[in-house]
Amino acid sequence: MGYSVNDRVTLTDIAQQSGVSVATVSLVINNRPGISQDTRTRVLEVAESLGYPLKPAQASGRSTRLTTLGMVVKTEPTRAPEANPFYSKVILGIEEACRRGGIHLMFGRLPVDENNHPVEVPAMLNSEVADGFLMVGTFIDETITSINNKRMPPIVLVDAYSNTESYDAVVSDNFRAAYQAVEFLIRKGHRHIGLVGSEVNAYPSLRDRRNGYLRALKENNIAGTYIAEFNINRELGYEETTRLLKEHPEITALFGVNDEVAVTAMRAAQDLGRGVPQDLSVIGYDGTYLAVKASPPLTTMHVDIVSMGSAAVQMLAFRLENPDAVRMTLTIHPTLIERESVTDVK
Predict the structure, then answer these.
(1) Engineered SS bond to 90: which of 82, 117, 309, 345, CB 3.0-4.6 Å?
(2) Range(s) for CATH 3.40.50.2300 in the chain?
(3) In what order do the strands lie in the sheet with 132-136?
């Protein structure tokens, strides 16, 4: 069917030639979610060929507005992300930002092994519906190489890592905050300070906290290091903390790489008959609800975890609108929350 310049092209005309419904054409023309990229491209090509007036962003076939977001969150071998006190808050921040912005949210689980390496890629990543993805808590490179999607939309990493600098990211200032936590213990007079959690080849955020611990000791001329090494995705360190404290009774303070580990370390110490904080000071990291519920309440480096999630949504929206802008990393700076688990050395 041909059209003269005086003919008014309707959505019905586009639908008939595209082989889709009028409702689908309307969604495409108005840049709404729920349409595959193949269908979107076909409808726009037909509309353009018929002379339907399209805005530049519509004619390109690529959305510049974030309407549908894919959230892919790591799922550990032993628990779902909603049960993780850290990632549950990240998810909350993402959900709140999407609700405020009227953004359709798709949720996908990314099963990982005990070292946070993906073992299965969710089908959602091969979908062409999402305008962009947030990858939460995993190594991105191994995931992306498994995707056969011809069109890779923008990706923002949230406490996730890549060997390249190809992605925007939102992370915690792990190294500096760990340094500050240990320095806080040093100011309290502690010289025999243990680290509970992490391994030499731990997940990058935990490795940075380990390095922050080591740097703080070195720069304060403290030679002794005491580390309970274990994989925190496999266990929380009760036995390792018990062994460390038995082998080194001179330890007066512990830094746990997260609140879960720190609370477990407190329990191990108390079971050995060491009171917290009168015999042993303990500080954690993350600022989750576990710190408040601990007995005694846990001093911790508080991360605004909800803001990490909401900021990632804003960053993804910016990337869609500005695809050629320089890559960015937003660093969330933790703050010290002093409670009852740390005291001065007597």
Answers:
(1) 309
(2) 68-172+306-332, 174-303
(3) 104-111, 68-75, 132-136, 155-158, 168-172, 329-332
Q: pLDDT below 70 — which residues of the chain? A: 1-7, 31-34, 55-63, 142, 145-151
Task: Note the pLDDT of residue 33.
Answer: 60
Tens digit of pLDDT for each residue in 55-64?
A: 555 555 555 7
Residues of the chain with CATH 1.10.260.40: 11-59
What is the dotted CATH code of the domain comprising 174-303? 3.40.50.2300
Nearest one of 313, 318, 315, 321 to 69, comparing CA atoms: 313
Residue entry with tokens 């010289």: 191
Nearest to 87 by CA among 182, 159, 3: 159
- CATH number listed for the domain at residues 68-172+306-332: 3.40.50.2300
User: How many angstroms separate the CA atoms of 97 and 25, rounded?
Assistant: 28
314 is written with which tokens? 């804003």
CB proximity list for 155: less than 8 A, separation 6 or greater? 132, 133, 134, 135, 140, 144, 167, 168
With residues binned 3-state (H G I as helix, E B as strand, rest as coil), the percentages for the chain, rounded to 5, are 40, 20, 40
Instruction: Verify cis geometry, omega within 30 degrees of 0, for the bond prior to 33.
Output: no
Q: What is the DSSP string of 56-89?
A: HHHHTTS-SS--EEEEEEEEBTTB-GGGSTTHHH
Q: What is the pLDDT of residues 4-30, one digit of tens each?
A: 434 578 888 899 999 999 888 888 877
CA 49 – CA 58 distance, rounded (Å): 13
> Does the structural domain 11-59 have CATH classification 3.40.50.12780?
no
What are the backbone dihedrals phi and psi of residue 168, each rounded to the nearest 5 degrees, phi first?
Answer: -70, 155
CA-based nearest residue to 316, from 57, 94, 85 = 94
